[in-house]
Amino acid sequence: MASVDRPGSESGALPFFVYGTLRPGEVNHDLFLKGRTAAEEPARLPDAALYEGPGYPYAVDRPGSGIAGELITAAPGEYAQLLVALDLLEEYAGPGRPGNVYDRVAREAVRPDGSRVRAWVYLAAAPLARRLAETGTEIPGGDWLRR
């Protein structure tokens, strides 16, 4: 399967903002990211909230909130394969697809020094995000590792 986005070159590739099981020390980090990253650094995603899922979290848009995570930069030569692998993991088939569990969107993440970087983040798809807002369990403080 090819990625649903085909950037022209790796030099224009966005890092990934991860906030759950892809964070260092979590199970999917070792399965999907170990040995495939050039950099991993702490960051926050503003205007988002985090909800409990069945063994993993869901992030949703929410102005005024923020979640903790890491910025992951793919190692040289790894971006295209990593994009495909993460799209499959997150059940993302393309923009606006009805079967998406998550939607991959470009958002600004904030490093500890206050600098901002545009990154891919997987947010709960709209139907799921609505259900979470109505009946979901929010993770206080927006940090999956401190739940």
UniProtKB/TrEMBL annotation:
Matches recorded under Pfam families: GGACT
Protein name, as recorded: Gamma-glutamylcyclotransferase
Segments forming domain Gamma-glutamylcyclotransferase AIG2-like: 16-145
Organism the protein comes from: Streptomyces katrae
InterPro entries per UniProt: AIG2-like_dom (IPR009288), GGCT-like (IPR013024), GGCT-like_sf (IPR036568)
